[in-house]
Amino acid sequence: MIIKECPKSFDSCQSELEQRIKNAGLFIFTIIDHSKAAEESSLHLDPTKVIVFGNPKVGTLLMLEKREIAYELPLRILIYSLQGKTYLAYKKPSDVGKEYGLSNDILRKMDELMEKLITF
């Protein structure tokens, strides 16, 4: 897993990340708010969200090569706050692809995109 510290506050980082995703022509399917779920269970968890996003056309091309990779799609970026710092984390698409016997230009381009999205 790739983990990078973001120099911004959690909210600013999330807002900018969402904008970057949209500007890249990608669709945000959902945002999972783990800290809210923890609160609803009477537990405390510093801000922790997973942004689920992607491009259905690109994902479909990968699934046509190896259907089981559908389990890993859409793409996800974890954003969390820990001890007052904000972090972004994701699994490198080419590494995930290797688990399914895939190695292609699509995955390499996805690697570049993910790195670009989380570099602040």
From TrEMBL:
SUPFAM superfamilies: TT1751-like. Residues 32-93 form the DUF302 domain. The lineage of its organism: Archaea, Thermoproteota, Thermoprotei, Sulfolobales, Sulfolobaceae. Coiled coil: none annotated. This is DUF302 domain-containing protein. InterPro entries: DUF302, TT1751-like_sf. Pfam families: DUF302 (PF03625).
